[in-house]
Amino acid sequence: MRWMLLKDLQILRRSKLLVGLLVVYPVAIALLIGFALSSGPEKPRLAFLNQIPPSQTTIRLGGEKIDVNAYTDELFKAVDRIAVESREQALEKVRSGEALAALIIPPDFTRKLSNGGFASASVEVIYNGDALKQSFVRSTVSSKLALADAALAREINKVAGSYVDIVTTGGHIDVLGARFDLLGLKKSKALLEDARAAARSPAVSRKLAPVQQFATLGVANIGRFKDVLSTVERPVKVSETVLSGRRTPLDTFAVALAVTVSLMFVCVLLASGLLALEREENTFSRLARGLVPGGRLLAGKVVLAAGCAFVVTLAMLLGISAFVPLDYGRVALWIVALAASALAFGTLGVAIGSLAREVRAASLLALMLALPLAFLALVPSGGVSPLLYDVIRVISAAFPFKPALDAVNAAINDASPSLLVALAHLGGLIVVFGAAARAGLRRFA
Amino acid sequence: MLVDAAPAAPALQVQGVSKRFGDREALRDVSFDVARGELLAVIGPNGAGKTTLLSILAGIQQPGSGTVAQPNGTAGRIGWVPQQTAVYSRLTVAQNLRLFARLERVADPQATVERMLEQTGLSERADDELGRLSGGNRQRVNIAVGLLADPPVLLLDEPSGALDPRQRERLWGFISALTERGTSVIFATHDIAEAERHADRVLVLADGEALLHGTPAALKAAAKADEAGDLEQAFVVFLRDRGH
Lengths: 445, 244
Hints:
The complex is a heterodimer. By secondary structure, chain A is of the alpha/beta class. Chain A has 16 helices and nine strands. Helices cover 69% and strands 10% of the residues of chain A. In chain A, the strands form three sheets. Chain A has a five-stranded mixed beta sheet, sandwiched between helices. A two-stranded antiparallel sheet of chain A has the order 2-3. In chain A, strands 7-8 form a two-stranded antiparallel ribbon. Mean pLDDT of chain A is 76; it is low at 1-12 and 33-41. In chain B, strands 1-10-9-4-8-7-6 form a seven-stranded mixed beta sheet, sandwiched between helices. In chain B, strands 3-2-5 form a three-stranded antiparallel beta sheet, with helices on one face. Chain B is globular and about 55 Å long. Chain A binds chain B through residues 281-283, 285-292, 445, and chain B through 55, 58-61, 80, 82, 84-89, 100, 103-104, 145.
């Protein structure tokens, strides 16, 4: 056994690329994860625009006053606030990736919340078009808005409780500036008892008059109690705006993601392996004598790998559509996106294959490159520090996974960026990696 | 360089070929020629530049300087048989031959495949997957691929290195038949006895330099060895006398 071990060590010693990758890969992955976990802010960054005039930060509910700042403070316990001066500035923060989303409280917020109907008080949340970013920030904003709503609901409950007390024991309420006195159920009860005792006398009708008035006012104000109670469930509505493109539901985005990942692995592994096999079998030296020109050799591998991956992923997409509703009217766009993405991945595959002398080394290299690229392309802006995010964006743009995901997502979900932009990006990468593959072939011929 | 005699009708002329890999000079001003039907052995110690020279002759690499020419009347693709078998182990013998016949654009690929199967004695193994063949049979397929286009010049890099004595004998019988039909054969080897036994002339390379181009007898004479003596001993003395 020790001789076998010695033999394997000797083989590894001769495979410098393989050994280098085996050492560098886990270190790189560890650093990557470490950066993502340690460098990113703990709270999502939100651009915040408060348009409520300073004199109107208080809501009056019955006799109670509620400070809106207490409401927003509850939200900002969970987010990193970036103060902005205008809606345009808020939009710019989201576009640039500095903020994951923008929260805008309109100027009429307190007025709508404190008016008689308690209706239509809303805040606006502006998201980036990216499904993962939306999902990340929506979960945070939704949960914190729910907490803030609960705090507001407690105040409203207190008001509702005071109304109930008045109805029970008597007192007065203010409706639209007018003051009404309420007898209260307890006093009504006493009066009714008196009325019963004095039945068939002229005084009965006089004593029953306030009871009749109480009943009238009570019935009139029951609607008000209902209004109060209906606002307890959700006092503030959230109006959502997607900054670029349409909002992509997370389940159909997951379909696009699964398809793109599969496309990448099939294509890159197959193309790199097919090319590396020529070296492993020593046939490359025969072919390089002019039997098959380098460009044609590469194109053949790319087309074969892309064709196989295309068929597999199109079948996968059609299969998934049985479970997740997809728009069959966009099938032509699916085909275009899958074909372009497959060609780009295939070209990346042959670029990898041109560097390797063995199929195993090519496969390992392809895996080690493809996995981190997929992870990097999914890191949301605001999920890591701005500098690291910029680095990630550059790396993601330099490889086909991100534009392929954009293309497939646009084809399936009509999401942004548009399919044309993604296709142009993929076209550029096909040219770049094609040139790299040719250079690799010449270098190792 | 010592030159014994130049052939009257060369099938291949090599003139002043040099090649560098970075700082290392792999070949330095190498010139020689090969006659039609001649069997030339390129001999030299490890790292002498034998494989680099054959790669340049085969067109796999370009020389840094110098020319490789096939005079009029003999022009055609040079056949190339690399040291390691360069065929697809997952394809059958016939599939390999058919594939390369098509890539070589031979007029009738199927007839050519059948002819090569016959010549190499592999007709019965035509449908066997190459990976299941012995090293000797794989090498025969390797050589057959090099001969598909019926080249006027065939290059063989260490052709018998992986073969047992019986397979070697069969191989040299096959190569002799080729030269009798007019095919010029250049083979690289560090088996000096094999060169003495089969080659018409030898080209001695050492550190990228061609030291001698002549018959085995000329090599012995240059080493001041007995003509009936051992060529390998003469080869070692020859190199030592020239500082290699």
